[in-house]
Amino acid sequence: NPPFTRRERIPAKKEELEKLVPEVKGKTGYWAYFVVAADKLLKENGIMALVIPEEFFVGRSAESVREYLFNKEYAVKYVVRSAVEVAFSESAHYRDYLVVLQKGSSEDHMVLLILKEKLDEIRNKMDYMLPKIIELRKTPDRKIILKELTAVMIHDSSQFVKKHIGNLKPLVSFNTYEAQTLALELLDEISKNPTLKELMKKHVVSIKVYNPGQYHTKGVEAEARKLFASRYGSRGPNVIFTIKESNEQGACFDVKKTKLSFEAPLSSTVFSLRTYSKVKHLDITNEEELAIVDVDAIPREILKLTGLLPIDNMIRAAEDISSAYKEISGNILLIRKVRLTSPDLYWTAFTSNNKVLGTTSALLNMNVTDNRTRLPFLLYFNSVVTLLQLIAFMAETEAAWVTFHGKQVWSHIHVPKIGSIFRFAEKAQEIFNRIRKLDVKPLFDRIKAHDSIQRQIDELALEMLGLNHWKPRLDEIYNAVAKELETMHKILETSRKKPKKTKTQQKEEKEKGRTESLAKWFKK
């Protein structure tokens, strides 16, 4: 169980650490050095069993560790994840796994164990469960479903590792057998379709991140965020202005915690979106939020009252937003950090006839080079086909919060071939025209209800992929995804309700557990 401490907190000098374990690159946690060091002590065919953080499978900074291990022909034999708790580690708030690797193994299949009870409840039942799990490797069966756990055999795992070394999360991403097997089957069927990463290399699309106040200008992050006015569900100390009304000439802004308001010409703003939260319409044309890029448009007394001074910093922040808008704003916005069961989440991608600048905490900026492909892409990104892939590749942050990074997640999404995109452009336009301004149900509710609007989008997505034979399976997919999201939601609620233990209680339980474990294993 290596420490998960961040590299920045390591007491040793980084130069000494890098000299001892030069194979680890990037800003990964302390655990990575222990894993590589363990390999140096392990003989051929030796077994490495460890508690590992989420970063091992999906973290960009941990890619050097994955490449190091799998270039040495390690095989993943077992992975254990909990479907009832966020983590195995005491008081942890972030996902971790139990992983068993074998050095120099030619084995090409792994067993994923999904625990449906807490470790304390399952501990005394292992004697009857372990033989069943071991037997799974010797039989053609693909699964064992018990009250306590589900064991799934994943074949061709080493091939998957080679292909997706940048993100191995689909091997371990799901809490339910149904969603896990569906996702792997889907990924296998569309494996020859291009990924967004491949389309980005061909300049068909681009995905850019905007960190306010960090694009061309450094040191004005807080000031830049305060220049983004809110219309929807944005909250927090950086929300200073809300949009009262807007038109083609300008906008009227209310000032937070005051009765003041002011008007500004549209030329002093750019179209933006701070968050996906509460944005009901797929098409946000004329409903965008605004960011102020001309500080002179804000009355001096309001600048003083809201603390938007010194003025030089505000001017630099406005210039940063203006530069980012010109260079990386998108005609499609993709969701980034999200809780998929939120009643305020309606879509996974939005569009506008205007270029819009999304901020990095919630949204990514996608620009589709050929406007004829914009609507087919938009609908595809809002399909359950994309959602299943997003869940497969997602990075979990805390409990049911997940992050769809551009490079680690969205870039791995398989999309229809460009020929199909063009062929279905007219049909995509027809569907878009029908639903673009509808007040739809939240995404989670649409999935649970097998909603007719969602089905229109999903059938088009399957047609574009050439998977018409999957259309009769849409109800199966909806049920699997709904069950998966409900499980994620339950884990979130459980983690919230979990009472905090005192340091003394934690220490006593840790010592008790260590003593019992040592006694148990030495007895064996």
Strand and helix map with partners:
Blueprint: H1 14-20, H2 31-41, E1 47-53, H3 55-58, H4 63-71, E2 75-82, E3 96-102, E4 109-115, H5 119-122, H6 126-136, E5 143-145, E6 149-155, H7 157-163, H8 177-189, H9 196-201, E7 205-208, H10 221-226, E8 241-246, E9 250-255, E10 261-265, E11 269-273, E12 289-292, H11 300-305, H12 311-328, E13 330-335, E14 337-339, E15 349-358, E16 363-368, H13 374-381, H14 384-393, E17 395-396, E18 401-403, H15 418-423, H16 425-435, H17 443-449, H18 452-465, H19 474-497, H20 503-523
Parallel strand pairs: 2-4, 11-15
Antiparallel strand pairs: 1-3, 2-3, 4-6, 5-6, 7-16, 8-9, 9-10, 11-12, 13-15, 13-16, 14-18, 17-18
Helix pairs in contact: 8-14, 16-18, 17-19
Report a brief summary of the structure:
The protein has 524 residues and is an alpha+beta fold. 39% of the residues lie in helices and 19% in strands.
List keywords for this structure.
disordered C terminus, globular, 18 strands, six-stranded mixed beta sheet, 20 helices, 524 residues
End-to-end gap: 21 Å
Radius of gyration: 25 Å
Low-confidence stretches: 517-524
Q: What is the number of helices?
A: 20
Instruction: Output mean pLDDT.
Output: 89
